[in-house]
Amino acid sequence: MAHDPHPTTTADDPPTLHDVDKVPTLLVVYLVVLGLAAANIFLSVSGLGAVALPVQLGIGAVQASLVAWYWMHMRRGDTVVALSVATTLFFMGIFFVLVLSDVLTRWRGGI
After folding, report:
1. Buried/exposed 37-52: b ≥16 CB within 10 Å, e otherwise
2. In this structure, are residues 27 and 7 in contact, taking their beta carbons and an 8 Å threshold?
3. pLDDT digits (tens, 9 = 90+) for 40-68
4. So where are the chain's domains?
5. Is residue 71 within 8 Å of 32, Cβ to Cβ?
6. pTM above 0.70, yes or no
7. pLDDT at position 7, please?
């Protein structure tokens, strides 16, 4: 039986060496994450007041999305990976809603 010197790959193949990201792509994503971190640090000392926190949270969300999409390979994930991400986000949402409702309904009077 002869060995095929040029194997073909399909979308159903498991991730192997043919599925490696290109170095320039990873370098650009790394530089974008570093640039966003520098922007976040600059915003913390810029004195924007109440606007700074939502902007910094947005920058952090973009950074987390880039890390998950490129370095954690979420874009190549199958159904199980998508289900685990959706479940994680669902339960984190429940956690944040419950904590926020607790904080907002506390009595703020003195003792």
Report:
1. eeebeebeeeeeeeee
2. no
3. 999 988 888 889 889 999 999 999 999 98
4. 20-72, 77-105
5. no
6. no
7. 62
